[in-house]
User: Fold this.
Amino acid sequence: MTSASQTRTPADGAQAPPAGLRPGGRASSRRAETRRKWYEIIGLTTPALVVYVMFVLVPMGFAFYYSLYRWRGVGPPTEFVGLRNYVLAFQDPIFLDALRNNAIIVFGSLLIQGPVALGIALLLNRGFRGRSAFRLLAFVPYVLAEVTVGIMWKLILTENGTLDALLQSIGLGGLVQAWLADLDVVIWTLLFVLTWKYVGFAIILLLAGLSNVPQELNEAAAIDGASWWQIQRHVTLPLLGPTIRIWMFLSMIGSLQVFDMVWVTSVPAVRSLGASATMATYMVDNGFFARLWGYGNAVAVILFGISFVAALLFQRFLLRRDIEGAITRKGK
Amino acid sequence: MAVNTVPAGPAGRRPVRWGTPLTYALALAVAAVSIAPVVYVVVGGFRTTPQIVADPAGLPDPWVWENYSRVLTQSDFWRQAFNSAVIALGTTLGVVVLGMAAAFVLARYTFRGRETLYTFFTLGLLFPAGAAILPLYLMLRDLSLINSYYAVILPQVAFSLPLTIVILRPFLTAIPRELEDAAAIDGAGRLGFLWRIVLPLSRPAVVTVGILAFVASWNAFLLPLLVLGDVSLHTLPLGVQNFSSQYTTDTAGVLAFTSLAMLPALLFFTLAEKQIVGGLQGAVKG
Assistant:
């Protein structure tokens, strides 16, 4: 029984006749109470449950079903091909390029954004006048839509555009590239733009983690003669572990899904050659625009499977201890 | 209130002092890298395309307002902003109402299967919207929802629910039992308790999840791209992309349109920075 109904019982009991006279009265009112509780539970959770199941879980189930067919999206799927779509995907060099590009984005983001964001977060965590204004500015790229950021950088990086002119004016004209069209360069350009946009996200999380480090520890270390660097290295960083691991997790899942930025910055030709394709753009290009619905859904299942396995492995080996206290606040 | 989604930094408790010159130099460098491209786009909108072609990295000479006024009067900017606003507000409302109702049950009712239900919702954190986009499109097509606001709102609500419930539930659990008892003694049922006490008390958490849902919806691209074929329903991110690919030679116009599309997000962020940052922080650490 819930304690809420327990607390109501004394009040009911005060007015109720002695139990001996009406033995059925209390039992039936308790039954009514229980029934009403269940009505409330069902009434309040059903809308969320229906929307969640229908638009999150059911589509993934259908994706697996469609992926077993060759299907152009008209009428019900009839041409069962088993796992052939999956085999085809892993035999397509463009899809393998997309996998490689996703791997570059996942590891590139972790290796570049992590240290950069940590440095900036430690800097912005020092108490100095004007700090909040600097924080606000550092978060700007993260708040803008990925599409807007993509178009913005496309305008800057276009051939004979702003960046090229800037490089030439400071005598570095030799570095000028076809930033978004050169097949060997484009993925690194994309990694740079994604880094520019998402470093702010890492900074936000790390600053949150830093605000949790007790000031007293730093002061104690300082009294013992530790320098600012030693304090960061031996006191702050170990305590930031959980925050860093959660950021790594979110960054990894996000990097596997990258779509908007690639879609708007690189031209379809570069994408279709695999130079800038990601799993998500490959899926939409083939499934939606080329109307290979069965095949596209197979790619969707692969994308989901990779994210799912990555998430589980990460949780199993790195996030195990953090998730309880960190995400659900149960630890507090 | 014992629960607070915006943690006070250590600086809040001690007198703020000036930093060293090196601190300011580094902070300025970070700020410059963050906003230089944005400033470039906004300022570029005040130039003419011939000016930009002649000197891509120069300043406006003279400054022209024509690009901005043209975008604001002749393009679809206002209609797209309106569509974005309707969809983002609808998503926010749906997330808050459905998420609050479910989180309230998961936090304040004791019943068999409660933890299972909670785990079932949190499972959704592992289902990224991007991976489900193709079957989602097919389902919306079968439901004849394509080319309607609902085609964007419903899936966005669904994919925001897990995080919303994860953020709201501990907040609602932390509301003292005594308040619920007091409400019961005053004759309020649990629904009265929800309406009269829980809702007003949990405003910070509700604002947080609402803002997170609003921003995610406002910036969304992939889902609207697939389900809103009808140009009159296009949102701002779709508009930015269309405008830039339609008028490739009108660089100044594209710069102006992009700047104007950034403006609402920047304004909104400046006004609600505490809640957005606090929300992201609350989402990962609590």
In short: The radius of gyration of chain A is 28 Å. Confidence is low (pLDDT under 50) at residues 1-22, 323-332 of chain A. The first strand of chain A starts at residue 69 and ends at 70.
